[in-house]
Every structure is written in structure tokens, then in C-alpha cells.
Amino acid sequence: MANPFTQYLKDTRNELNHVAWPTQRQTIVFTALVVVISLGIAAYVGLLDYGLRITLLDIVTSSGNPNASNAVQVTQQPTVSTSTATGANPTFNLNGGSTNSTK
């Protein structure tokens, strides 16, 4: 009886001979179709995103809030800087200011 791994490789090679491989022309056509369809879907999603963003901004600005353009803001989280090389205590920076964490 043959080694099971060797038998597996022989069976695999035999099965690959039964595969109906595409021609070079078919491969090129199918690749082009995938690229074109992907670009079409990307354009559709991009236009949908743009339209929804414009619609949402129109809704927010027509809400009567004088600060509607600033209704949605992204704020920066506090950053922690540590200086272990100098032996300094960690400092927490809020809005550009610096305060020592130990008092």
C-alpha cells in the first residue's frame, strides 16, 4: 500500500486533469467584467453617499438651529504623553493646555 500523502497527491493531480479550465480569452473577459462591475458599484455607492450627505445637511440646516452648521462636531480625545526617559510624570493635554497629573 502506498503512502497516504503520496496517494493524496496522485488523486489530486488526477482530479485537476478533469477540470474545465477557461481559455485565456475567457479569463480576460471575465476579469474585465469584474473590474467594470466593481467600478459601477463604487460609483453608485459614492453617488448614494453624496446624495444622503447633502440631504442630511439640508435637514439639519432647516431645523431652525442657528448653529446648525456646527451641529455635528468631532472632538479630539485627551492625549497622554509619558516621558520615561527623563523620569517625568505623565501629563494630560486638554485643548492644547498641559497639566501635570500628580499634584
Identify the notable features of this structure and list them briefly.
3 strands; 103 residues; three-stranded antiparallel sheet; mainly alpha
Walk me through what this model shows.
The protein is about 50% helix and about 10% strand. With about 100 residues, it is mostly helical. The chain has a domain at about 25-65. It has a three-stranded antiparallel β-sheet with strand order 1-2-3, with no helix packed on it. Strand 2 (about 90-95) and strand 3 (about 95-100) form a beta hairpin. The protein is elongated, with a radius of gyration of 31 Å.
Helicity, as a percent range: 40-55%
Compute the number of helices: 2
Tell me the strand order in the biggest sheet.
Answer: 1-2-3
Low-pLDDT runs of 5+ residues are none
What is the terminal separation in angstroms? Answer: 80 Å
Shape: elongated
Mean pLDDT comes to 79
- Count of individual beta strands: 3
- Order of SSEs: HHEEE
How much of the sequence lies in strands comes to: 5-15%
> Main sheet?
3 strands, antiparallel
Radius of gyration: 31 Å
Structural class: mainly alpha
List the helices and strands and how they pair.
Elements: H1 4-16, H2 24-61, E1 79-81, E2 91-94, E3 97-100
Antiparallel strand pairs: 1-2, 2-3
